[in-house]
Amino acid sequence: MAKHTVVLIPGDGIGPEVTGATRRVLEAAGFDVAWIELPAGATAVEQGYDDVLPPETLAAIRTNKVALKGPVTTPVGKGFRSVNVQLRQALDLYAAVRPVRSLPGVATRYQNVDLVIIRENTEGLYSGIENAVVPGVVTSLKVATEKGCLRIARWAFRYATRRHRRKITVFHKANIMKLTDGLFLSCARKIQEEEYPNIEYEETIIDAGCMKLVQDPTRFDVLLMENLYGDLVSDLCAGLVGGLGVVPGANIGDEAAVFEAVHGSAPDIAGKGVANPLACLMSGVMLLNHVHEEALGERIKAAYNAVLAEGAVRTRDLGGTAGTDEFADAVIARL
Ligand code: NAD
Fold it and tell me: Rounded to the nearest whole angstrom, what is the distance from the C-alpha of residue 263 to the centroid of ligand 1?
């Protein structure tokens, strides 16, 4: 029997290509795993399921607690709720973690970027509570609960402590949204003061924070923010280190964790074998750390760093000509 069982959701668009490549690298590195492959997204509907998130897929993640997920496409205008929002809410995956690092051999405007974005994943403006008040007037409700704000703050400070990070910066707009963002801030302050005085703490109004990020991202360490802000700032930060093809992610709750790249299903390049599998592979390394296979994760990280530093095999988004599988093969050769 395999040591680990992981749910594998290939997803849509480039999803099957990048998860397929990731699976090959993880197995080649010696990950002793049984994959349970299940659909989600447009693929699930095409296979005859009534919903983009089939009950079997959700149940398998609940049972096995860990999943590697490719990006999915939510068919627009057909009444389906987003797979990602459903997963986050059903499994209470309240912490989204996105490490953003400069990579060897990937030339960008900045060197030495080493940020981690921690995004509250279940509340804020993405709570999905919208109303038509009267014809011509609609509202979208921003939700912040003390419980939600305290637990994401505690999660962030614990993460920073375990990972030997030095500082947490909260991005906010409490000058305008005094109650919701005000609560987010007061909870973060409380956790820092009462439980984690070891970690430096600062607050920045998000508009100024974005300016400072693009001026000099190296002045930040761990960024903590509510749902919508985290979504936007993640892509901004991806742009600092080479784009969406190189930024991994994890959605973590107390009972389950789903690992996936920040990027989407990239319909413009789907099926062409040219997608960069690195973001998904890096998410796979985060998964290995989560299941306490850190040594395997380090080997894979060293292998892809070597391939990038050598520069001969690169995907098109990083200025090269290699395809998805060619890049994965090069990583496997360096393991
Ligand atoms: P996208 O991330 O799919 O693509 C944006 C751009 O980045 C495209 O030009 C694409 O070719 C490029 N790109 C993305 N990933 C790449 C990779 N690995 N290698 C090389 N290039 C890559 O964003 P989008 O076009 O806004 O969204 C497309 C679909 O994906 C939408 O249906 C959206 O809802 C969905 N989406 C899903 C997720 C998810 O499941 N986690 C996240 C974001 C978007």
Answer: 5
